[in-house]
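note to self — DONT lose this again. spent like an hour looking for the file last time. sequence + predicted structure for the chain T wanted, 95 res
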Amino acid sequence: MKIREDRVDAIRKLTPLNERLTRQYGVSIDMTSDLEHLRHIFEHYYAKREMILALDGEAAALHDNDYAKAVLITETIRLFLREIAPKRSRKRKDK
């Protein structure tokens, strides 16, 4: 599978986060997966994160390992998706 150049740059930038996930939680995110799969993982862990917040409250959730894992996974995927998103061109003002 050929990886686009923007994905290679994004993977390189997010390697430290992925290594931390692997080292701390034994989880690695395959950034070469298709976007739908990554979005599905993001939604799953975002829902898990919100559920922990709702059940335990913010103070208790901050000390929960599952909450920390869910936050790290969702933020890593969110950053990756933002890195590979198409760049918007600035609108030029006509004088």
